[in-house]
Amino acid sequence: MNDLTFSSARIVDEKEHPEIPWTGPQPQPSKPVLEVEFKSNVDLFAYAKMHEYEVGVSVYLCADGSHDKDKELLGSPYVYGSGGRIDAYSPSYSAGSGSIYRIYIEIKSEGVGVLHELGKKPFNYDLLTSADDVCFFIRGGSMNGGHFESNLVRVPRSALRDALDRSKR
């Protein structure tokens, strides 16, 4: 699984994307998040089903071609395609090869939340002002011990800036 490539980035309202789980109080408030689209020649829905994988994403600030594991960004932990969340237990769906997939990243964090709960060191970040690129990889695993990790995908700072600029219009 080493063919993932960055396609696009844009700012969306999280509440307009029902595929992203919301467990807070109703009604869900508006919240801008960064939607990143990427492409793979692998049908991730079929791959997850075939290997019984739960599929997730890890997102970091990155510089100089590598990611900083101490700077993990917040967002939805899942990967989505046109058929919804990708995992072994999704309804049968085939994306075909060359499909576009999505992840969602919080634009800013004050260093609290799920990372702290998972025992990871939370930190403050703001993609509106950060000079770093964003990098991510997808990973999966199953209860029978199988696992995978994709190549690292870079979202250039220029694409982040363009997405943020377009959202202001």
N-to-C order of helices and strands: EEHEEEEEEHEEEEH
- Outline the biggest β-sheet: 5 strands, antiparallel
- Our count of helices gives 3
Termini separation comes to 37 Å
Count of beta strands:
12
Q: Provide mean pLDDT, rounded.
A: 85
Helix content: 10-25%
| Overall body shape | globular
Quaternary state, please? Answer: single chain
Structure commentary:
This protein is mainly beta and 169 residues long. Helices cover 14% and strands 40% of the residues. It contains 3 helices and 12 strands. The chain has helices at 44-51, 114-117, 157-167; strands at 5-13, 32-40, 54-63, 66-72, 80-81, 84-85, 99-106, 108-110, 124-126, 133-141, 147-149, 153-155. Strands 3, 4, 10, 11 and 12 form a 5-stranded antiparallel β-sheet that branches. The termini are far apart. The model has no long low-confidence stretch (mean pLDDT 85).
How are the SSEs ordered, and which strands pair?
Elements: E1 5-13, E2 32-40, H1 44-51, E3 54-63, E4 66-72, E5 80-81, E6 84-85, E7 99-106, E8 108-110, H2 114-117, E9 124-126, E10 133-141, E11 147-149, E12 153-155, H3 157-167
Antiparallel strand pairs: 1-2, 2-7, 3-4, 3-10, 5-6, 8-9, 10-11, 10-12
List keywords for this structure.
14% helix, 3 helices, mainly beta, three-stranded antiparallel β-sheet, 169 residues, 12 strands, five-stranded antiparallel β-sheet, 40% strand, single chain
